[in-house]
Amino acid sequence: MRRNRLLHASSFRLGLLYAGLLTASVLVLFGVTYWFATDYAARDETDEIGVEFASIQDEVRSSGEARLPTIIDNHVRLRKDVRAVYLLQDPSGHKIAGNIEAMTPFLGPKILDRIFDGEKRQVRAYGYNLSNGDYLLVGQDTATLRQMKALIFRSFGIGFIVTVLLAILGSVIVSSTVLKRVETVGRTARAIIGGDFSQRVPVRGTDDEFDELAASMNAMLDRIEDLMRSMRQVSNDIAHDLRTPLTRLRQRLEHARRRTHTVEELQEALGHSIAQVDSILETFGALLRIAQIEADTRSAREVSVDVSKLLSGIVDDFAPAAEDHGQQLVAEIESRLSAKADPELLTQMVVNLVENAIRYSPVGARIAVQARASAGYLELAVSDTGPGIPMQERENVLRPFYRLEASRTTEGSGLGLSLVAAIAKRHQAKLSLNDNDPGLRVVVLFPVAA
Amino acid sequence: MRILVVEDDAETASYLVAGLEEEAFTVRRAANGRDGLLIAMTEAFDLLIVDRMLPQLDGLTLVKTLRTASIQTAVIFLTTMTGIDDRVTGLNAGGDDYLVKPFAFSELVARVRALSRRPRGTAVETRLAVADLELDLLKRVVKRNGNEIQLQPREFRLLEYLMRHAGQVITRTMLLDNVWNYHFDPRTNVVESHLSRLRTKIDKGFSPELIHTVRGAGYVLRAPE
After folding, report:
1. Which ipTM value was assigned to this complex?
2. Measured in whole angstroms, how far is the alpha carbon of residue A3 from the centre of its chain?
3. Contact assignment for A316 to B82 by CB distance below 8 Å
4. Which parts of chain B sit beneath pLDDT 70?
5. Which residues of A touch B103 (CB under 8 A)?
C-alpha cells in the first residue's frame, strides 16, 4: 500500500523525470567526450606514423637509398613492441622488405585489419610513393585509441549506473518527505471530517511553501469554524425565538378552545392567533431576506442613486409618524449627494434605522437623518437622543435576534439591525454604532469611487 | 367577473377558489402551467391569478407567452419567494400585481377588485372628482367644496391613489407599494400617520366624511350613496 503510494506520488514521478534528464545529460557528455578523445587519439597516432616515416627518410638520406630494405628490417625489429607494420614493394607489386605481405598500394591514411598472434587488430597505416618509384607503407597498432575508448566506456558506465541509482534514491527520499508533509495535511482534513474542528495543520517553522500552505489552510479553517459557530448561534436563536411565539400561540388556541362561548369570542381569538402567525412568518421572511442579501454578490440593480433626494423623501415620509410619537424627525442632508447603490435596499436600510430610533427613543427625542460627503466616503447617519446602546453591547446588537434587555418587551423581530448590517456589507459600506451624547448615532460609510 | 387561478398546490387552490367564489367571482382553476396557458388562450377571463412556480410551465413563462400572443388580461402573480428581484422580474414579464404568500385573503380581494376596475387603455385623466372633492393633476390643486386645500407631495399622491380607486377597499400594503414605493413592511405607522393628516385636511369641517377605515382590511374613499 505504502510502496504503491510512493510510486504514484507526483513528487516521485517528478524525481523520476529528473533522473531521466540527468541520465540524458550524462549520455550527451559521454558522446561529446568520446568523440573528442577518439579524434585526438587518432590524430596522435597519425602524427606518430609521420614521425616514423620522417626518421626512415633521415636514415635513407645519411646511408643511401640502397640501404632502405635493411633500415626497414631494423625498424621492424626495434618497434616490435608497438606492433608497428612496414611494407616496401616495388612498382610491380613485389615485396622488398617489411613484416606484412604485398598488397594493392594506396596513398594516405587507411585502417587495415591485421591478425597479430592470432588476434584480430586494427592498424592505422599510411601509404607513401618513394622518389625511386617504390611504395612504402608505415603503420602501427591503434592501441592508444582502443585503450582510450575502453577507458571512456568503463568510466562512463560506472558513472552512469551511480548517477541513475543516486537519482532514484533522491526521488524516493524527496517524495517520501513531501508525502509525509502532505500526509499530515490529509490527516488533519480527515480529523476535521470526523468532526474535530479544533484540528489544525502543524506548521514547522521552516517558512517554506508547505508552511505557507499550512498557514493558509489554518486561516481558512478558522474562518469556516467562525462561520459555523455563528451559524449554529443563529439557528439556536431561531429555534429559541420562534419557539416562544409558537408556544404562546398554542396557549392562546388552547385557551380559545376551552373558554370561548360565543362566535364573536372565537373570532377574536382567531384574529389574534392569525396576527401571531403573521409575525412569525414575518420573522421567517426577514431571515430569508437577510440570507438572500448576504448570498448575492453586488447585483445589477445597483445604480447611481440621488442619495439626498432619497433621504429627504424618507424623512418626509416618517416625520408624521415621529410626530405622532411626540418626537421630532429632521433632515441634515447635504444637497446633490449620490452613490452607487441598490435604491430599494438603501431605502430599507435607512427606514429600519429611522424606525429603530422612533421606536426606542422617548417622547421629546430629536431624531436626525444626516448625510455628507467626506474624503472618499459618503457618510450617512441616523442619530437620536434616546437611551443609546451601552458600549459593550454595540457588537452584539448587530447579531440576528439579539435584543437588549430593555427592549425585550417591545415588539420587533430583533432582525432590524442585522438587515441593516447585511445591506451595508453588500454595498461594501462600514457600519458603526456611536455615542450621540446622549443617544445613539448609527453611521454608515459608503465608499465613493473617485 | 371571471377569474382563472393557476395554482398547483391543491390546498392553496381550493382556498383561493372557495374564497373568491364567496366574493361572487366566477372562478376556474388550472393545476399546471401548460393547462393554465391553454385555458387562458382559449377562454375569456377578466383576471388571472398565477403562481410563479408551476409544474410543466412556470408562471413567468406562461404570462410572457400570453403577452406575446397579445392577450392583455390582468395578471396577479403569487409567490413564496421574497427575493429582491422577484417583484421586478414579475412585473417586467407582464404581471400587473404581485403578492407574496402567505397573504391575508382580504389583501387578495382588494387587489383583484383594484385590477378588475382599472380602465385599460383609456386616456389619462387629468381631473379626479368624488362628491365635492376635486383633484387637478395638472395644476396640482385639491379643492373641497370649492375651497383649496394645501397638501404635502406625499399626501397629494395618497389622495390621488385613493380617488383613482374610489369605492374600492385599498389595503395598507397596496398604499405602501403604490404610493410610497416601499416593497417591504415598515414597522411604524407611516401609512396611518399620513392618512390621519390627509383625513384632517380633507374631511375635517366638511360633510360628509369621504375617507373611511375598513376594519381589518384597509381604507376606502367613497361618496355616500
Report:
1. 0.81
2. 27
3. no
4. 81-85, 117-123
5. none
